[in-house]
Write a structure and sequence with these properties.
Strand 6 and strand 7 form a beta hairpin. The radius of gyration is 21 Å and the shape is globular. The strands form two sheets. The chain has a five-stranded mixed sheet with strand order 1-2-5-4-3. It has a two-stranded antiparallel sheet with strand order 6-7. Helix 9 packs antiparallel against helix 10. The chain contains 16 helices and seven strands. With 374 residues, the chain is of the alpha+beta class.
């Protein structure tokens, strides 16, 4: 089933699906937040003349309508936020990840649904931006003193902010990975890699957008949406693969920020999981030695399994073990071991206290489940 889905997502689909295969495509695509993307590809690809049964067509049309409505809401929200905080900024607002794909009209916006809007601002602008957002109805769900300290001292963002009426969630970043990791790049290198959009905000240029997507994926500890994120990378790659200027910029940015390894992992698993053909000249552009031996074998074990489509119809042996190893790996990347131990112990203790006494700390605060998701 994964092979059928990747063929559709990469434009290599055929017209010979059975009724049961159509059912499974819908189930697996929906479970991986990819049904709108599958629908977009199949309904809008007129050249393939792909036969879609009427029952399946109804699912696809509904998904396209959802995508269109959602993207319009995102664009309106981005314009609203930019209007309200623009005076607090020393430079233009930068929109990242899913919302960035949408306002950039990127290939990766195709069928992309997400739960929050990611913004990048200068660290010096954070206090002013946060005050402005509070003034216009965005409040923090994070009431724990420990979590507040974690975000503000160790992380690369402030605690998420939710609009008290609309439920829109904003993640306001000042870097792209946690500061405590020791690998947070000079963010000016990304801030200078932007282009303007018609919505009054900026997005990363295609090469930087691809690299940021790769970093976000391979610095993660949870891969519930890993297959979808790999699909994002496949579409983002389409925008730069034949553009030597963007490819050169991609490798220059990866080298200058120390993320050549994450770039390599993106190419490798686009090949191994998504069946993308990566030209040999791409690999010759790497300056640092590429992973090999045990290290490469461990990467293949972990990412070959956790990046597979997440559904019972996609049988992956030892997926659970790979997910646990990925969880440990991701946390070790994000924080030094001594801080990880302290962080884990604190979380465990608070979980025990919460199970015994109830959620006293947040009992009187608005909870995520009480607010309708965007």
């Amino acid at each position: 089933m994964q092979k059928i889905l990747t063929d559709i997502l990469t434009g290599n689909h055929s017209d010979s699906l059975s009724t049961s295969e159509w059912r499974d495509v819908i189930l697996v695509a929906r479970a991986n937040s990819l049904l709108p993307r599958v629908a977009s590809i199949l309904l809008r690809d007129k050249a393939k003349n792909f036969h879609i049964p009427s029952q399946v067509h109804a699912h696809f049309v509904a998904s396209i309508r959802h995508e269109t409505l959602f993207h319009n809401q995102v664009k309106n929200e981005v314009k609203f936020v930019n209007t309200k905080i623009s005076e607090a900024l020393n430079r233009k607002l930068i929109v990242l990840k899913g919302a960035g794909y949408v306002v950039a009209d990127s290939c990766a916006a195709k069928g992309r649904i997400f739960s929050d809007i990611d913004l990048l601002v200068l660290k010096s602008d954070i206090p002013k931006v946060e005050r402005a957002l509070h003034l216009f109805g965005f409040v923090s769900d994070t009431q724990s003193e420990y979590d507040q300290k974690y975000y503000r001292e160790w992380a690369h963002e402030i605690p998420p902010l939710r609009h008290f009426q609309r439920g829109t969630v904003l993640d306001v970043h000042h870097n792209i990975i946690p500061i405590v990791s020791g690998r947070a790049p000079d963010i000016d290198l990304f801030i200078s890699s932007t282009r303007e959009t018609e919505y009054g905000v900026e997005v990363l240029r295609p090469a930087a957008m691809f690299l940021h997507s790769a970093i976000h994926l391979f610095f993660s500890e949870e891969f519930t949406n890993g297959f979808r994120d790999l699909s994002d990378l496949s579409l983002l790659l389409d925008e730069i693969i034949d553009d030597d200027v963007e490819l050169s910029y991609l490798f220059s940015l990866a080298g200058n920020t120390g993320f050549e390894n994450e770039l390599f992992l993106a190419f490798r698993y686009l090949e191994r999981v998504f069946d993308r053909q990566i030209p040999a000249h791409i690999y010759r552009r790497f300056k640092q030695p590429l992973p090999k031996g045990i290290r490469l074998g461990l990467n293949d074990f972990i990412f070959g399994k956790v990046l597979a489509a997440n559904h019972r119809l996609v049988d992956v042996t030892f997926r659970g073990l790979a997910q646990w190893l990925a969880f440990v790996r991701g946390h070790l990347l994000k924080m030094p071991f001594n801080i990880l131990v302290k962080h884990t112990a604190s979380k465990l203790w608070r979980s025990i206290v919460k199970s015994v006494t109830g959620d006293v700390e947040n009992r009187h605060h608005v909870q995520r489940k009480d607010v309708k998701e965007q």
